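Researcher: Quick sanity check before group meeting.
Model: Go ahead. Protein one:
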Amino acid sequence: MAHRILGLDHTVHAVADLEAAKANWQRLGFTLTPRGRHIGWATGNYCIMFPRNYHELLGIAEPGGYTAGLEDALKARGEGLQKVAFATDDALAAAAEMTASGLNPPEPQSLKRELELPEGTVLPAFTLLMLPAAASPQLPAFLCQHLTPELLRKPEWLLHPNGAQTINGIVVVTDDPPALELPYEILVGAGSAVRTDRMLAVRAGGESILFVTPDDLDTLFPDIEHPARPTPYIAGLRLRVHNTEAAASYFSAAGIDHARSMDGTVLVPAAAANGCFLEFSSRA
């Protein structure tokens, strides 16, 4: 892949009430990390960790401070997936390569967050490289390099009662997916973008970004209701489980609204998951 992109590192989910979102995602069958707080920013988070990627619930911890666009996103669109982070092992080198490609990224920035562990507070550190809109059109995105990966995962954080094992990808709704083929080939690498009729799938490492039209969203996922939203937006989070029957049994026992598609995939509607639908599949 191009520009030091290794795959999807994490997905960023904007939530209006961080503690309420934590309780909801625990009910959905996810194990959450202790609460984190970004140093110098007014945001806090809880994370749902998997071996190679994770899902971040991001909320406002201090009204009136710097939120990196979170406050505006919540006002404009409400809760839901806000952006994605691509994994990189060298943000500075990625910035140099992007500059050479004419993508014109800003300077990488450093970020730390306080993570409240029972044994004491630790400070996971990151280097972030924000992507200009022209580099990742229709999808707010950035690159994330982990400087302290040993602080991010504990074995007990990787076990989820609903059986979720990893993030397979996301579903993005936009009006003209084929128009995005060239920009994502430039960003992620030659051969990473594959068109199918009006849809576009971009493969980044072990994960994929599926761009679809509003009509195709309804066609692909007809078993759940999709709230009307202005395009573009990230509609869904795709997760892999070992056993979809077990996932469906968990949701039934927990009283969580869900549906089964023809191939056995389990779907949780956006209304039950803070504004984005969840797909649980045994497919890689």
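Researcher: Fine. The other one?
Model: Protein two, sequence then structure:
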Amino acid sequence: MSAPTFDVRAYMRNPYVMYPADLDLGTMGSLSGPAMETLNYLWTVESHALDRMRDLLVTPTHAESRVTAFLSTWAHEQHWLGATLQALLSANGRPPREPGDTQLGRILRAWDDRCRPTVAAIGTNLLNADITGAHMVTGWLDTAVVATVYRRLGGMEPALGDLMRTVGRLKDRHMAFYAPEAHNRLADAASARRVARVAVSRWRFPGTRYAGPAPARAAVAGFFADPGVRGAVAELDRTVATFPGLTGAHPARKALGQLAPETI
């Protein structure tokens, strides 16, 4: 494996934490309805950090010390980001709420809670370290797509501009970890590249596994009607295609097409 390019020790020593008490809620107390819908969606996504950690840590990825060290600080940052979004929503008279599960979503949630950890632990152990490269690619994808939403929201809602730029820098640091980890691990093994390609083909827009596409569509699909934002989606796919073994992949465009076909 190539030498790592992200200083995990420095990252752990200096987490990028946003506390609700640091918000100037007086300047953010009259947000538009669409902005509130988007913030609620983002809160839902960010508040499920422990679900992602569960999915990773029942697999051989749990033995990767760089990844687990990163995730310990990442989870701390995610917790406080979720708390910050919750405070912002509450200040606008709309405490955050989880979207309801679809019928399929209820089945998937029951499976994830009761069976998936055991099945994943057994199944992915057959893949050994190959699964970690796939986790790094999908982690990058999740982060990159959500970062695009934050930046677009900051551009459309001036009162949120500074906060959204701050969150964007947080997400950039997460992507700076995922990208070289993905490159290095996929470059090292053809088997890892095959696993990653399957994972990318199955990747879905964040926050849609249980609730289906409707809540995400209501919250963010309008953003992607902007040609500039569609260009940003295309850039995400171009980046994914630079990862070894993923030439020709376009997961962001595919996921957006399932979310809101009229925007692509």
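Researcher: One line on it for the slide.
Model: The mean pLDDT is 88.
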